[in-house]
# Entry
Amino acid sequence: MIYDTITKKKAYTFVDEMPVFPNGELALHRYVSDNFILKLGEYADTQSSFNLRFVIDKDGNLLGARIFGKREIEYGENEKKMIEIFRNSPKWIPGKCDKKNVDVFMKQKIHIRFKQ
# Structure
């Protein structure tokens, strides 16, 4: 268990049943791609990776989304967009430890490739 300084919560890092985005990992990637909108011509053949950290609380709420290794003032526009997408995500299926819902600290890597 760790203490997350952003959410001010104690959270597990590994549990019997890890939190899951509704309908699974593929649905998460679909949700991100549907919501990560760029203006036509804004990017051509570029790639971005986002190393996100956040807590899924015992009720399935995503809290404290941030980019690993950066302070908020260092975020670029794409990082700000990705954080906003995660902050607005639907409730997750919470993690469980000993059959009880618990707060879980999550790491999620998202890789996006823009092709024109």
Q: What stands out?
A: The CA atoms of residues 44 and 90 lie 30 Å apart.
